[in-house]
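Students often ask why inverse folding is considered easier than folding. One informal answer: many sequences map to the same fold, so there is more than one right answer. In these notes we will look at a single instance of the problem. The structure comes first.
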């Protein structure tokens, strides 16, 4: 039994330390598997999302979903701490720890392991092996607490940077954002639009870097219930795709770069969360772009002759361009319960900046479960 306890304790200790290092310290790659954290998020998010899908009221559903990101992070830290306590408790029990004040039983060893991890006491062990284990655990406890305390500001700084660009989209693209609104509010000269596209490309790269380094950041909802990082990202990609088709020279090249960067973000995040990576074979149409919305989009393009050549914009071309990223966007939307943007904004909805805070809660939410439209509509009518 003692040999089995040593092996089990060492395995648990190695898993926890490797997982904490991969999650908090190591700059990960897309194909990297963050072991305990990955299994933990997969096991907890599915039932949490299933419960959220059953909540009919949009406002209540969004409030419920917003809890998961911060709460799951705190629980993950707790799981690591429990793993360390259990691992060192097993090692101390196998080494026959002999504390001076209490009997050397397994449960007492677990208690002393917990007190040592959080630097409350060492239990005053008598034998040399237990003293060495206690010293190592005390040092790891200090390192663990310091790492967690230092990690939280970094995570929330990354969250703040992501949300900054989303908030700036409110006046430019609506709430929620759309490609049509972005094109309508676009600068009047190609040079200024090119600069704006470059800024969006940089934001896309920042989102990719942040959510590869901290995958749990994807579960954090945006500060407004009718916005999300996925909605903003797809709206930017939609807009960049239109500009790429209807412009030329430097503006077209920059639009291609922004479009490629946006597709890169969707593809890599889909890989990290084990979602579909490629569009299904034979997919021929973009469900988000119906004929009626294309007609309105085309009118916007026609109204900006200094920027766009409307002759290059056709429904088939836009749908073909959309099929390059639609599958990944839809998979992420289904997984995170975040709605994809429409191409044309709903004129009946006022943007956040146009509505007083006291009245803003009456506006229908767009970021919720996009797969229960009839239920949502009924819930929205009850709320209004």
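Output (designed amino acids):
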């Amino acid at each position: 039994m003692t040999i089995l306890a040593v092996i089990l304790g060492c395995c648990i200790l190695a898993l926890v330390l490797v997982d904490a290092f991969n999650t908090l310290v190591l700059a990960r790659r897309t194909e990297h598997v963050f072991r305990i954290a990955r299994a933990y998020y997969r096991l907890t998010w599915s039932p949490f999302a299933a419960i959220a899908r059953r909540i009919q009221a949009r406002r209540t559903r969004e409030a419920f979903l917003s809890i998961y990101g911060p709460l799951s992070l705190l629980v993950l830290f707790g799981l690591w701490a429990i793993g360390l306590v259990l691992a060192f408790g097993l090692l101390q029990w196998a080494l026959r720890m002999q504390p001076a004040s209490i009997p050397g039983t397994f449960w007492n060893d677990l208690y002393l392991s917990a007190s040592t991890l959080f630097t409350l006491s060492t239990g005053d062990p008598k034998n040399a092996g237990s003293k060495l284990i206690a010293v190592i655990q005390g040092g790891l406890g200090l390192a663990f607490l310091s790492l967690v305390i230092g990690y939280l500001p970094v995570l929330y700084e990354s969250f703040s940077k992501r949300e900054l660009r989303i908030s700036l989209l409110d006046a430019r693209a609506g709430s929620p954002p759309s490609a049509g609104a972005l094109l309508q509010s676009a600068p009047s000269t190609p040079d200024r639009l090119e600069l704006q596209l470059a800024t969006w490309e940089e934001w896309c790269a920042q989102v990719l870097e942040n959510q590869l380094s901290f995958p749990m950041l994807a579960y954090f909802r945006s500060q407004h219930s009718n916005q999300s990082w996925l909605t903003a990202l797809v709206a930017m990609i939609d807009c960049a795709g239109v500009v790429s088709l209807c412009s030329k020279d430097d503006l077209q090249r920059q639009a291609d770069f922004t479009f490629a960067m946006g597709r890169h973000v969707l593809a890599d995040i889909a890989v990290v969360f084990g979602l579909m990576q490629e569009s299904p074979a034979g997919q021929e149409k973009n469900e988000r772009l119906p004929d009626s919305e294309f007609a309105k989009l085309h009118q916007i393009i026609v109204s900006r002759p200094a920027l766009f050549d409307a002759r290059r914009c056709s429904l088939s071309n836009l749908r073909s361009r959309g099929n390059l990223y639609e599958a990944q966007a839809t998979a992420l939307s289904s997984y995170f319960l975040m709605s994809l943007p429409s191409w044309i904004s709903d004129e009946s909805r006022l943007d956040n900046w146009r509505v007083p805070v006291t009245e803003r809660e009456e506006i229908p939410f767009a970021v919720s479960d996009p797969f229960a439209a009839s239920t949502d509509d009924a819930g929205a009518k009850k709320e209004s």
